[in-house]
Amino acid sequence: MSDVFLSRRQAVAALSASAALPLVSACSRALGAEAVATSPLPAAPAPSTIAEASAILDSIAENLLRLSPEGIFQAGIPAEGGFTWGLAWRTTTGISYRLRTGLSYAPVMRHEHLNNAAEIIAIIRYFFQDVRVRWHPLPARHLAFYGYIEARTPRLDRCREL
């Protein structure tokens, strides 16, 4: 590993890209046979082995070790897994998609949102000591559409052990 520090923009890009990867439950979750047969999308990419999932975590840790000490990780994420988020897509896009195609929109959402908000926050909390989450428009995950995450002070010991 080099001693070059990442800029805040590079760190955010690296962690945001990594957060979108299937790291927790998506590693073992697959679309059901019926959903795959009726879905116009390919199955969501997922690490097929523990070694691949470990390589993803190694990459995150490697990037965190290059984050400057005063660096801040910031991300905006959908409140996936929350009541309001689920209700919103089911009563808007879900209905129009069903009327247009005759198919359920749920496989599309599983393809696009591999991890829910709680899983992404758990990963960030594993790697950072100081994590603050704010939900919008209302201050609770189940009442929000999106969350804002701000994380400081990387846990370098955890980054090094991966």
Largest sheet: 3 strands, antiparallel
Question: Radius of gyration, Cα only, in angstroms?
Answer: 17 Å
SSE string: HHHEHHHHEEH
Q: Any idea how many domains?
A: 1
Mean pLDDT reading: 74
- Oligomer kind: single chain
Number of strands: 3
Spatial separation of the terminal alpha carbons: 13 Å
Strand content: 15-25%
Query: How does the helix and strand content classify structurally?
Result: alpha+beta
Strand arrangement across the biggest beta sheet: 1-3-2
Shape: flat
- How many helices does DSSP assign? 8
Helix content: 40-55%
Low-confidence stretches: 20-45
Any overview of this molecule?
With 162 residues, the protein is of the alpha+beta class. The chain has one domain (8-161). The chain is 47% helix and 15% strand. The chain has eight helices and three strands, in the order αααβααααββα. The chain has helices at residues 8-19, 33-38, 50-65, 83-91, 93-101, 106-112, 117-127, 156-161, and strands spanning 72-78, 128-136, 146-154. A three-stranded antiparallel sheet has the order 1-3-2. Helix 1 (8-19) packs antiparallel against helix 3 (50-65). The protein is flat. Residues 20-45 have low confidence and may be disordered.
